[in-house]
Amino acid sequence: MRVLRAALELLTRERGPVLEDFPDDAPGGPAEDDEAWACPLPLPVPASPATGEEAFARQLLAEVGRLRTWHAQAVGKHGRTAFGVSGLGPERVDELATLIAAAAFDHLLGTPDGAAVEMPALLRFAADDLRAFYMEAAAAQPAARKPGPDDLARWLYGSTVLGDAFYMARDALAAHQDDRTLQTQGRLMVPGAYNRKPGRQ
Questions:
Q1: Any alpha helices (H) in the chain, and if so which ranges?
Q2: Is this structure's pTM higher than 0.70?
Q3: What share of the chain is helix, strand, coil (3-state, %, to 5)?
Q4: How far apart are CA 107 and CA 47, in angstroms?
Q5: Peptide bond into 46 cis (omega under 30)
Q6: What is the pLDDT of residues 4-53, one digit of tens each?
Q7: Domain segments of the chain: what residues?
């Protein structure tokens, strides 16, 4: 009723047109789309890199395992996936995660059979496939609202073991001042918009 009275009062003004804000907020609080998105799948807090390469790799593989079913559901629902630029299929995601985990500790592993390119050029494609795997899996989970690309990127880079691995690999590879190929692979690990690691969600 107050809204109607306020609207009728505008008709009594001598000059117009009149545009005024109604002083009350709409009922129900902020719109659902304005609420922060958080991945509904609980992931463990990433271990410190100080735990060592093997422990870090195990935790990354465990995280990948938690997302595997959700990724399969996403592929089944949409009939497609962005995973595959490395030349490997989603069933070999563990091999790509192992490559990135090793690179995070400045170790370069050999090229897996069937890969599209040789190491170390494969690292950028491994990173692309892992990003697709994580984001497709996270987007497939039921949530209060559908996550946007920025939501997914902030989650990936700020709240996952893979995000930590990307930052570690970037820094380790960038330290090779005498090898531009490795430096380039390092820079491609993390997009410029996330040069600084976001906070955990």
A1: 2-10, 53-78, 93-104, 122-139, 149-159, 161-174, 180-187
A2: yes
A3: 55, 0, 45
A4: 19
A5: no
A6: 666 667 666 666 555 555 455 444 443 444 566 666 666 666 556 667 89
A7: 50-194
